[in-house]
Design goal:
The protein is mainly beta and about 375 residues long. The chain has helices at about 15-20, 60-70, 85-90, 235-250; strands spanning about 1-5, 25-35, 40-45, 80-85, 95-100, 105-115, 120-130, 135-140, 155-160, 170-180, 180-190, 190-200, 215-225, 230-235, 255, 260-265, 270-280, 285-295, 300, 305-310, 315-325, 335-345, 365. It has three domains: about 1-100, Cathepsin B, Chain A; about 105-240, Jelly Rolls (Sandwich), CATH 2.60.120; about 250-365. It is built from four helices and 23 strands. InterPro entries: Calpain_cysteine_protease, Papain-like_cys_pep_sf, Peptidase_C2_calpain_cat. This is Calpain catalytic domain-containing protein.
Length: about 375
């Protein structure tokens, strides 16, 4: 079994955590529990996976520490390992998680941040597989307080990457979306190059919004049955747009097809709803209007009740992302109306799409 323990007690402030050398919002591994005839009698051996904890407490005297060190010699020589008394553990740690550990699986954990706007460079995790592998992907949000309710939706898209052309989603597209602090997927992936991009419109800021104290930090966890070679790179938002367009085309059950256009939407089972429009004309532009007729507890990626877009010939455009943002027990609902027409001239979008800044909502050629 793998036992994890997390700080983040709402009744203890950051200063109190700092005094004993603990991170106030962090996860640790429980390596060992011992009952001894010294001091308080019960002790835990913990490990900080980042090796940055400098925990100390007065009740572990030099004599007790020497006794505990003799036990510590038997443990692997990891950094970030420390002893803590049972009473201190109960005071500073808010929760424990017990799970089965698959010893022959490889574990990757990388931290990054969700973006705040549709024009900000975003972290994309690239990795390669040398052969078919069982993969588990977990996206874990860092809350300030673990007992606090989360109103945000978080998602990630996983696509294959063609190494010669850099095209994405040609063979594999996975979209996972969840309202809360954990988004999860597991399955089998064939040999090749892949990219995972986490995103959350719920955490985007607006000019009129009050100061947002929510953290944007997350941890991406990957378990694989074979070694994985990977790392984060920062990509323009249009790269995410290409992945999301591929995902929308895959998951759309009933595209709305007309003589000149196709409208794709993701099913409502996703906590993030994507709307993509395709202009099939060879020469004419497609003006696409979308109006939210009824919406409550919804986050809109363009912060607007209505949008007007001009899609060039043979282009697709991610019109918007709509995310559920309600607390459990509250009602969230939405409905919208659309219209379209063909024109021979181009016009600006409303709200403006910052195409020169690789805006997520920029039209993409196909």
């Amino acid at each position: 079994l793998l036992i994890g323990a997390s700080t983040g007690c709402s009744d203890i402030n950051e200063h109190e955590y700092a005094l004993v050398g603990l991170n106030s919002n962090h996860a640790f591994t429980v390596l060992l529990a011992k009952s001894l005839d010294v001091g308080e009698g019960r002790f835990l051996l913990l490990r900080d996976p980042h090796g940055t904890t400098n925990f100390s407490e007065d009740s572990i005297t030099p004599k007790i520490r020497k006794h505990l060190s003799s036990i510590r010699v038997e443990m692997p020589n990891f950094s970030g390992i420390f002893w803590i008394t049972w009473s201190s553990f109960l005071r500073f740690f808010e929760s424990i998680t017990i799970s089965t550990y698959v010893s022959n699986h490889f574990d990757i954990r990388e931290q990054a941040q969700f973006t705040e706007s549709p024009t900000e460079l975003l972290p994309a995790y690239y990795f390669t597989l040398s052969k078919t592998s069982l993969i588990t992907v977990s996206l874990i949000y860092h809350r300030h307080h673990r007992k606090g309710n989360s109103q945000h939706t978080q998602s990630f898209v996983l696509c294959n990457v063609e190494e010669e052309t850099s095209d994405v989603g040609t063979k594999e597209v996975i979209l996972e979306s969840h309202r809360g602090t954990l988004t999860y997927w597991n399955g089998s992936l064939r040999p090749g190059a892949y990219v995972i991009i986490p995103f959350s419109v719920s955490l985007w800021k607006t000019r009129n919004s009050k100061k947002d104290e929510r953290t944007r930090n997350y941890t991406l966890v990957i378990h694989s049955s074979i070694p994985v070679d990977g790392g984060f790179l920062h990509e323009p938002p249009t790269f995410l747009a290409d992945c999301l367009i591929a995902a929308t085309l895959k998951y759309c059950n009933k595209p709305l097809i007309s003589n000149s256009s196709v409208v794709y939407t993701t099913p409502r089972r996703f906590a993030a709803n994507l709307i993509v429009v395709e202009n099939q004309c060879m020469y004419e532009y497609l003006t696409f209007n979308m109006i939210m007729t009824n919406a409550d507890n919804i986050y809109h990626s363009r912060h607007a009740n209505g949008t007007i877009d001009c899609v060039p010939p043979r282009h697709r455009q991610l019109i918007c992302i709509l995310e559920w943002g309600h607390l459990r027990g509250e009602v969230a609902h939405m409905s919208y109306a659309t219209s379209q027409r063909i024109s021979r001239t181009w016009h600006n979008a409303s709200p403006t799409v910052a195409i020169s800044q690789a805006d997520l909502h920029s039209p993409r050629p196909f």
